[in-house]
Design brief:
alpha/beta, inorganic pyrophosphatase (n-terminal core), Udp-n-acetylmuramoylalanyl-d-glutamate--2,6- Diaminopimelate Ligase, Chain: A, domain 1, 3 domains, 22% strand
Length: 550
């Protein structure tokens, strides 16, 4: 099934979530019904407030879009039980054109694999193992069932036992000599309407006499068999066919591969491919955490194309994208940030505009193409727009943002100013999240001058909560930087009312000395008038980076 995920960046903000929902709706209304809004990070209190306000569900959570084993496995697993006869299994394999069958217990756990290769070795043994061709390991019921015959008499019909196959196609004298050298109680004698051989076998008290050709046993002979506790099976086939089929009455548990490879549904297909391709097996059970078989795939399934595509919104750099984005096709990019180093294998629609929010671009798409915009979608896009532009007060704001916001107010029936006040009062990340989560809830990775770094932003009303938690935030930021090996990590805490920010900076000391904003405390700077990570802080920090040698 084709999948198209409309998805924002890791650690999504309100604009990323709202633009994903809005653009997925736009694509569905313009001929792409499989478009689904997705996210690769958690929501926060403000995002939840927006979703609840406009009655929208959170986008589908997708942590990794890399092709997985579950994408190519077959869930309708054709299998047999350990007690299935080889004949029954071969019939199933022939009907379904299957070379390998998993042998499953009643609880779904795989005991082994049954392959045509191993079955062929059983039916055509090497010269040194020709005695194996006379060995039967089965029950009377299993034997009768395999032959499509009728068990007229026999004790312990369900008990599996080891028998030696003897064909009575010789004189009664020769037959007597031959059976005299064998354990009569373990013999399975295949014979036609040779009453003399039948009676000799019964007198010798063999385990079972199999009468071939669809013939009946004479009543007196059958009575003698019952008296001597000799089992009798009537086979509808000729002697040669009966002898061959008798060997296939063995349960598959005796001819399976007990050592085999299994994989789990969430395993990355790229890492599995080499191991599976180099294996002698042609099929591989897929098991869950409890060992239960939930699927199977073959080597040929590894060649399948996984039909999963992405539309990226509110970002265009792989370092910010969902894991595995480089392993699937990217159809479109809708963004308003700087253009990074992302490359694609073929031309795509890349709409990148210098406006204040991606929600502005998505709303413009509805308007430009004359597509009806649902009221709740208009509300979501309004929320994304005012969140990213601080209700048109951010330096990233353009005339186009203001124009679009006016139209969104009309369609949604929501006053932007009133809504913005409620939005920023809906929850403080510094209160609702531990420091380790607060510093990454809206965090992006960048690379400049061969140095990787991160910048996160938190928008608050006032700095009271920040000053109470500054030490914990600095420690969490330093641990985050060390864990990823960044040149530096920054956190911009913005007062959306006063239009001022505090910058926390950890990492290279040279960079800290280049910051020419007033320092409040060690590692904390005050940035008057700086409220935009994209348009103000990022260009400033990259300018400072270029001044550092090496």
């Amino acid at each position: 099934m084709s999948e198209v995920y409309v998805i924002g960046h890791r650690n999504p903000d309100t604009d990323a979530i709202c633009s994903a929902i809005g653009y997925a709706e736009f694509k569905r209304r313009t001929g792409l019904p499989e478009a689904v809004a997705a996210r690769c990070g958690d929501t926060n209190d403000r995002i939840d407030f927006v979703l609840n306000t406009f009655g929208a569900a959170a986008p589908l959570f997708v942590s990794d879009v890399s092709p997985k084993v579950k994408d190519v496995m077959r869930t309708n697993v054709m299998s047999v039980t350990p007690d299935t006869t080889v004949a029954e299994a071969m019939s199933m394999m022939d009907e379904r054109n299957i070379r390998v069958l998993p042998v499953l217990r009643t609880d779904g756990v795989c005991e082994g694999l049954l392959s045509l290769f191993k079955i062929s070795r059983f039916f055509f043994p090497a010269a040194r193992r020709l005695t194996d061709s006379r060995r039967l390991l089965t029950s009377l019921d299993g034997l009768a069932r395999t032959l499509g015959g009728k068990l007229l008499h026999g004790s312990g019909p369900d008990e599996e036992e080891e028998l030696t196959l003897v064909v009575g196609a010789m004189s009664v004298e020769s037959f007597g000599v031959r059976t005299g050298r064998l354990q009569s109680e373990k013999l399975a004698v295949v014979v036609g309407d040779r009453w003399d051989v039948q009676n000799l076998a019964i007198r010798e008290k063999v385990r079972v006499v199999i009468v071939t050709g669809g013939l009946e046993m004479e009543p007196r002979t059958l009575e003698s068999a019952i008296d001597n506790n000799v089992a009798v099976i009537l086979s509808p086939h000729d002697t040669a066919t009966t002898a061959n089929l008798s060997r296939a009455a063995m349960s598959v548990k005796h001819v399976l591969h007990e050592h085999f490879l299994t994989f789990q549904p969430e395993e990355n297909l790229g890492s599995v491919r080499a191991l599976a391709s180099g294996s002698n097996f042609h099929a591989f059970p897929v098991v869950d955490a409890d060992g239960k078989t939930v699927g199977i795939f073959s080597k040929s399934d590894l060649l399948k194309e996984v039909d999963r595509k992405l539309i990226l919104v509110d970002h265009n750099e792989l370092s910010q994208a969902v894991r595995g984005a480089d392993k699937v096709e990217i159809l479109e990019i809708i963004d308003h940030h700087r253009i990074g180093s992302l490359t694609t294998s073929q031309p795509i629609l890349f709409r990148n505009e210098p406006v204040g929010s991606t929600s502005t671009i998505v709303a413009d798409s509805f308007i430009r193409y004359g597509i009806e915009m649902p009221k709740n979608i208009a509300g979501l896009l309004l929320a994304g727009l005012v969140s990213d532009t601080l209700n048109l007060t951010s330096p990233t704001t353009t005339a186009r943002d203001a124009e679009i916001l006016g139209k969104l107010e009309q369609v949604s029936g929501v006053n932007a100013t009133t809504f913005t006040e409620k939005l920023f009062a809906s929850g403080s990340l510094l209160i609702s999240r531990p420091p380790e989560q607060a510093i990454t809830s809206d965090c992006k990775e960048y690379e400049e001058s061969a140095r990787k770094f991160s910048i996160a932003q938190i928008e608050e009303i006032g700095f009271d909560q920040f000053w109470k938690r500054k030490e914990d935030l600095l420690l969490a930021l330093e641990n985050y930087r060390n864990g990823r090996g960044y040149f530096f990590s920054a956190l911009l805490v913005t007062d959306v009312v006063l239009q001022v920010s505090l910058l926390l900076l950890v990492g290279d000391e040279t960079l800290g000395r280049l910051i020419d904003y007033p320092i409040q405390e060690e590692g904390i700077f005050e940035l008057q008038g700086v409220v935009s990570r994209k348009k103000q802080l990022l260009p400033y920090l990259t300018h400072c980076l270029r001044q550092i040698p090496g």
